[in-house]
Specification:
Radius of gyration: 21 Å
Bound molecules: S-adenosylmethionine
Number of strands: 14
Structural class: alpha/beta
Oligomer: single chain
Largest sheet: 7 strands, mixed
CATH class of the largest domain: Alpha Beta
CATH architecture of the largest domain: 3-Layer(aba) Sandwich
Length: about 300
């Protein structure tokens, strides 16, 4: 039986997923709405909010038959409808309910497998019990802090340290470049690093810089000399700049041997800069993801070995 990899493109970024598949030489077998179907086994894509592995088609005779077939394969199912919305919803209503729960910063992620399914044709389901995310359709939301963070950018770093770098020991020095108004600096400070060096051309909010253990430097990140810094545990960047400029800055700090881990937002203008995005990926051991809290930008990270 043919098995497929099914990608759910991020809302409004179908074009990016299409280009990514093309660039990676992966042929699209079929596409409906935001769903891209590819024959065989393939890894998750940057521009897919969830990836379904070893997906299969099955004919169904009725709504009950549809939910019965899904229940035979797993408990948790995220539904994305492309058509036959009411019929699909009736099938979903017969499946075990998944309580939508917001999570806390650094809370352990759900461990039960999360499935994906859709009604591809009126009497044909496409389904897989195995997806890349523990959340239905890869959508995760936090119990937000509406008081302290001065911008919503903090959610990106929350997501990163909850999903991609859980159990990060917050020891040593973290540097946050492009830090104003101070959301990421606040996150790093709450993680309790020994010191947070926060750099921006514009000042961060005083109530953040007043938290202590924060050294704010009002200057351009591109003029920083790695030799003037102590060992850095995490180099974090959310600077608005061309990807190429960020890449040069990252390489300079990497080559200095001073930095163990990196997490940086690569921001795009109207077009996705694939040329430089792929150059980031050439850095061995690094990864790029599109966080649920990223917009037209992606997150590049590199995790070194802890001492
Ligand atoms: C998206 S904001 C950062 C938001 C921040 N991460 C937060 O959580 O509040 C981007 C920042 O990049 C800064 N920036 C742009 N060019 C810069 C440069 N050459 N050096 C340092 N910061 C720069 C801007 O001043 C702006 O504050």
């Amino acid at each position: 039986m043919t098995s497929y990899t099914v990608y759910l493109a991020i809302h409004q970024f179908e074009h990016e997923l299409m280009n990514e598949l093309k660039l990676k030489g992966i042929k699209i077998a079929d596409k409906k709405d935001r769903l891209f179907l590819v024959e065989g086994d393939h890894p998750p894509m940057i521009w897919a909010q969830t990836t379904g592995f070893r997906a299969q088609f099955a004919d169904i005779e009725s709504i009950n038959d549809g939910s019965k077939k899904l229940k035979e394969h797993g408990r948790n199912w995220g539904l994305f409808t492309v058509d036959f919305h009411r019929r699909a919803q009736l099938i979903q209503d017969n499946l075990p309910k998944i309580k939508k729960k917001n999570i806390d910063f650094q809370e352990a992620l759900p461990t039960l497998p999360m499935g994906f399914w859709t009604l591809w044709e009126q009497n044909k389901i496409l389904f897989t019990p195995h997806t890349s995310s523990p959340f239905p359709l890869g959508e995760m939301d936090f119990n937000e802090d509406k008081v302290m963070p001065p911008s919503r950018a903090y959610l990106k770093l929350w997501e990163f340290f909850t999903v991609y770098a859980p159990n990060t020991p917050a020891q040593g020095v973290a540097i946050d470049v492009g830090s104003c108004p101070g959301g990421w600096t606040w996150v790093l400070r709450t993680m309790n690093f020994d010191k947070v060096i926060s750099v921006d051309k514009a000042p961060i909010e005083k109530r953040i810089s007043d938290l202590g253990k924060i050294e704010f430097r009002q200057e351009s990140a591109f003029g920083l000399n790695p030799d003037e810094f102590p060992e850095i545990e995490w180099f974090c960047s959310d600077i608005i700049c061309y990807p190429e400029r960020l890449l040069n800055l990252v390489k300079r700090f990497m080559e200095s041997g001073k930095v163990r881990n990196f997490v940086c937002t690569i921001k795009y203008q109207s077009q996705t800069d694939w040329e430089n995005t792929l150059k980031f990926l050439e850095i061995p051991g690094s990864q790029i993801v599109h966080l649920h809290h990223n917009k037209h930008e992606v997150t590049w990270f590199y995790k070194g070995v802890s001492k």
